[in-house]
Amino acid sequence: MARREPRRLSRRQFAFLGTQAVGAVVTVLLGIPIVGFILSPLFHRQQVLWRQVGDISGVPDRQPTKFVVSFPQDEWTAANEDLAVYVVKINSDYLIFSNVCTHMQCPVRWQADLGQFLCPCHGGLYDITGKNVGGPPPKPLPQYVHRIDGTTLFIQNSFTESL
Amino acid sequence: MGWLAAVYDWLDERAAIRSLVRKGLYEAVPVRGAWFYTLGSATLVLILLQLVTGIFLTLLYVPSVTEAWASLNYLKQHDAFGSIVRGIHLWSAYILLFVIGLHMVRTFFSGSYKRPRELNWVTGVGLFVLVLGMAITGAFLPWDQAAYWTAVVVTNIPAYTPFIGSFIRALWRGGDFVGPITLSRTFGIHVWLIPAILFPLIGAHLALLRKHGEFGSYINYRGAYRSREGVDVPPPPAQRPIEPPYPAVPTDELWAAPLETEDFFPFQTFKDGLVSIALVIVVFLLAVAIGAPLEAMADPSTTTYTPVPEWFFLPLDELLLLVPQQLIPLVLVLPTGGVLLLLALPFIDRGPERNPFERPAVMVPGAFAVLFVVILTLLGSGRLFNL
Q1: Is there a contact between B171 and A103 if contact means CB atoms under 8 Å apart?
Q2: pTM, rounded to two decimals
Q3: Whether the predicted interface score ipTM is above 0.90
């Protein structure tokens, strides 16, 4: 009686590979939705919103003046988030800055005694035109996308340059 | 007592608890320097304190940008015991960071990370990093001004990673800016993700400790290298066994064993207990006397608030101040490099020598690294608190 050819895949090997396959399938089925879930905010486009800041005719020349504007925070929260807007008038031109430092995004403030914007965290300095002139900030102070209707300022919830 | 023994026997027959208890409690531990060996158990006790208080804090805390601060403010205003629980959570975290650091320094100094205990060290470095992660994510959660600006700065640091920086920042923040998703994610990381890795890793760390026994330190072995005939002559370092097989049971040979050992239970556990109870009392007193602060609610539009980092964040914050704008990624490279070097330590320093004074190649850079962190901390605290 002729002996059978040895099977190329033994029963043990089959079970071994089968167990691995089960693990792989579960990993993929769980992994794809979880990774997609974690990444999904990255593909979520921020809604472009305009808000009225107010009348800026009273802003004195070369004296940055702070306004506060509320924007909705996110899809699911009803609460708004207050953002600071520095309006700088130089002659007849307006520059509309945020208070977000380009170094570590700490809240920048106008220091009248220095004549500069100061970041209190790590001592970043910006001049009145927003240029980063001292300390660690790598970029100028961010400016809001804005429009001025007559003397009323409107800003968009985004910067002219991404941070 | 008869029925207690019967219950014990019943359980032992079904769950083999006798051998488990024996493994957990009976081990020969070096006697000299044993007070230094309490740092590990103190770390464990403080972590368990975190676990217990943390679980109960979730019974009230709401991880939402509109309610996180409000829920903790309610705790502060209306719940004296709850405030103590939060105080214990905060102060035991602070002291934990100290104690885990000392535990690491002790292990480094005594060369206990050498073969065959490399994985004890590697899991320990992992635990250290995870505890730091817990401290940083925990600091976000109150959503007061301090928490909010910590969240802004900390999540912004990875943005300086070359090429994928802003991607990592957006991944943590759940968007370009800190917002509701940032808090949800950080809460999830703090209460589930990190603990899910941390506690199994503690199990591994302890299992490895039992597997290899406590090395102790060099002083436990001075003069202990005896020949099989009992001649008490220490061999030169090169000939010393890489792993001193000191006895786990009294019948073992005493060759290269610690000079003196005693049973883990009750002798070492008593010392462990004393140190731990002292720390727990200190934590409790701080929790009652000072408690956990809660500043005004987060306000992104502020132009008067000066963010002050948590003290354990001071070295990195000082680095942020000192590093010029062209070299900001250094702030990422230095800590990452430090952790990688720590992980690599047992594979770099592989000689059998345990005496800290005969390991200058490791001790000197280690001392400089500690000095560097301490100086940065002092500079940072001097700058921020006008010390």
Answers
A1: no
A2: 0.91
A3: yes
